[in-house]
Every structure is written in structure tokens, then in C-alpha cells.
């Protein structure tokens, strides 16, 4: 009779990989009650990320208004997002709001709230 000694190590490895994946999912940012990633989690991600994240002043952010070939960035709760390629931000404006600004209060009063931010690239943070 042929022994299948490789099955036990393979099964053990599969369990370890599965458990590692579960642990990684539990440590990810948890959604808020509205089903969106919390902005504070995004802020933490920016502050703990690599030095590739840029720190903007409000006056620097104003350059990124989506006009004259400039990218379009906004900030919400200190996190700077790139809305350049967002379909609803054509030409750097969205429902009367312009890119290059802090839109924290405006987005909190909007019908969609912060849920739309989870699909946007994070560029950096506001100083």
C-alpha cells in the first residue's frame, strides 16, 4: 500500500493560509453603519503610509483645481483625494463645488455623504 505522506503537510499549509487570510480581513478598516469606510480610517491610512504621500497646505491645494491641465484634488477631514478622473468631477467641478478646496462640511451635508470617497485615490493629507 502506498503512503500519502504529502497530504498532511499540504492540508496543514492550507489551514494556515486560510487563517492568515481571515486575520488580515479582520484587521482591515471596518465599514460604518452606513456601509462606508470611515474617514478616520482613511486618515489613519494616510498618516501611517509611506513617504510617497504628499502633505498639502490649503493654498497649495488650490492649484489642483482641475483647470488648465491641472489635476483635480479635494480634501475631506484632512485627507486629500484625487477626483481628476471621477466621472462627476468633469472640469474640476461637481454640483457647484470646485476642486482644490476643503469640502469636509459640504460632503457631510450631501446626499451621498462620504461613501463616494472610498473609490477615490488618496494623494496625501492636509497640513
TrEMBL record:
Annotated signal peptide: 1-28
Keywords: Signal
Residue ranges of every copy of the Cytochrome b5 heme-binding domain listed in the record: 56-127
Gene3D superfamilies in UniProt: Cytochrome b5-like heme/steroid binding domain
InterPro entries cross-referenced by the UniProt entry: Cyt_B5-like_heme/steroid-bd, Cyt_B5-like_heme/steroid_sf
PROSITE patterns: PROKAR_LIPOPROTEIN (PS51257)
Pfam families: Cyt-b5 (PF00173)
Superkingdom of the source species: Bacteria
Coiled coil: none
Keyword Signal: yes
UniProt key word Oxidoreductase: no
Entry-linked SUPFAM superfamilies: Cytochrome b5-like heme/steroid binding domain
Official protein name in the record: Cytochrome b5
Organism from which the protein derives: Ethanoligenens harbinense (strain DSM 18485 / JCM 12961 / CGMCC 1.5033 / YUAN-3)
Amino acid at each position: 500500500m502506498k503512503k500519502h505522506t504529502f497530504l498532511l503537510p499540504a492540508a496543514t499549509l492550507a489551514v494556515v493560509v486560510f487563517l492568515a487570510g481571515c486575520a488580515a480581513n479582520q484587521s482591515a478598516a471596518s465599514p460604518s453603519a452606513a456601509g462606508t469606510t470611515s474617514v478616520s480610517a482613511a486618515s489613519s491610512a494616510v498618516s501611517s503610509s509611506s513617504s510617497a504621500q504628499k502633505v498639502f497646505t490649503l493654498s497649495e491645494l488650490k492649484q489642483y483645481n482641475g483647470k488648465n491641465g491641472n489635476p483635480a484634488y479635494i480634501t475631506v477631514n484632512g485627507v486629500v483625494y484625487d477626483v481628476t478622473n471621477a466621472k462627476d468631477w468633469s472640469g474640476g467641478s461637481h454640483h457647484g463645488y470646485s476642486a482644490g478646496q476643503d469640502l469636509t462640511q459640504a460632503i457631510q451635508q450631501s446626499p451621498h455623504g462620504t461613501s463616494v470617497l472610498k473609490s477615490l485615490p488618496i494623494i496625501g493629507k492636509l497640513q
